[in-house]
């Protein structure tokens, strides 16, 4: 596996990988772009082709090609390796004797189960006819690898056990469960199966829709895989692996609630559609979407349950920094039914005419209040204002305050006062997670000033080059003499991610400097002078105390010390 990692690194540069996701532009020896991991107008995301690394000065993320793919695709290291190996044309080969255990085995098991379910669907004319009635074409069925779980109690488990998978692996993958007698039972029976993949396209779980004459009337309409090592409902969006490129291309994601809704939307050409799987839309989902776009359109059912789900999803999306709009479906229809009955043009129109979340809420609540102003006001205070409090943009928040004030017929200051009275859970959470980048930097090295950190960043950058422009050994020695061994060792002990950030900082600051050796000498000279100045201030204070106490011996020694330091400071000043 180690050889495979190196082969991938040899074939793919950091620029090759990052440029597939964001537009890079030249910035001296580096490349830069607007960071894909947080919203910004001024590019602060830097890529170093020479070192094969990246770093964002806005949000602090950084790493190599593997960490970049992990972060932007939302996968683990092995998922990133798989994605990059495919792009590089490198076959994943395990070292001799290296066992494919743990998650690798679970991925293999789930892929084999997906094939099993797909073959079963091909043999089930009744289930295929149902999908055709819902408007799902055969090509779409194959593309999404839809399947069928029969009424057998243990056919899948027996088949996989015969293929060498263990009982524990079947349980860990969420494909089976224990019976009351201790035997193994298939978790899914009498269901049309929708495989759910992670960002790298690997099947991690399923959503099964009840179907067939033998299905129990008491069984839930949809049954999802349980939480497993691979399947985390709060972090995985159905269809995201297929939608992410279209989301980035069109600058917008569309959220639907059901698997059939998503499949129908993709079939209609809206490949930027994603869906939740057995859970509400979460902040983790919002973070996943935000890696691709800041814009989300929510298209849920038009009934009361759909309205409440849209409110919950919008709140999480706004808190996650997304711009949210609501696409209204015809009453009594979900997205799949709308597409089947009214066609792709009607769906396109609904998405294009989606309302901003605040406008949607105000319109809906005003209609539900039936002209009762007090009821409308209370609804706005309890439902709309918490949404506005979640909005990150100050300008957008001010616009919403203006709109709410106009709808209620009150002053904007009254709305702002009501907003100020709301509990600030989000703000409190933010204060608990730490401050901004500058606070983190200053807190990391409390005894090292900014100038010393700048000199150290220059040293780090030069040490990383094959042909440095500075005598790094001498520079390091003089820096230690200037700031002290303890301070330099503290900076040397910083995590690699922070040291890489300092390298980028130095490269950006000194990259165009024509006389780096001279600059390095000037830095250590200034630092030595500052150290002597601090020592002189302490000696002067001590001298005053000795004089006041009438201690002639200590006064003489401190006078000589002050004279020596003053002379050293004068010499260093002449060098600058």
From TrEMBL:
PROSITE patterns linked to this entry: TOPRIM
Cofactor: Zn(2+)
Gene Ontology CC: cytoplasm; DNA-directed RNA polymerase complex; primosome complex
Start-end of CHC2-type zinc fingers: 35-59
Biased composition (Basic and acidic residues): 436-446
EC number: 2.7.7.101
Family annotation (SMART domains): TOPRIM, ZnF_CHCC
UniProt cofactor note: Binds 1 zinc ion per monomer.
Gene Ontology terms for molecular function: DNA binding; DNA-directed RNA polymerase activity; zinc ion binding
Annotated spans, Disordered: 425-446
Keywords: DNA replication, DNA-binding, DNA-directed RNA polymerase, Magnesium, Metal-binding, Nucleotidyltransferase, Primosome, Transcription, Transferase, Zinc, Zinc-finger
Gene Ontology annotations of biological process type: DNA replication, synthesis of primer
SUPFAM superfamilies on file: DNA primase core, Zinc beta-ribbon
Catalytic activity: ssDNA + n NTP = ssDNA/pppN(pN)n-1 hybrid + (n-1) diphosphate
Origin superkingdom: Bacteria
Location of the Toprim domain: 251-330
Subunit structure: Monomer. Interacts with DnaB.
Domain remark from Swiss-Prot or TrEMBL: Contains an N-terminal zinc-binding domain, a central core domain that contains the primase activity, and a C-terminal DnaB-binding domain.
UniProt similarity note: Belongs to the DnaG primase family.
Annotated function: RNA polymerase that catalyzes the synthesis of short RNA molecules used as primers for DNA polymerase during DNA replication.
Protein name in the entry: DNA primase
Organism listed in the record: Candidatus Kaiserbacteria bacterium CG10_big_fil_rev_8_21_14_0_10_59_10
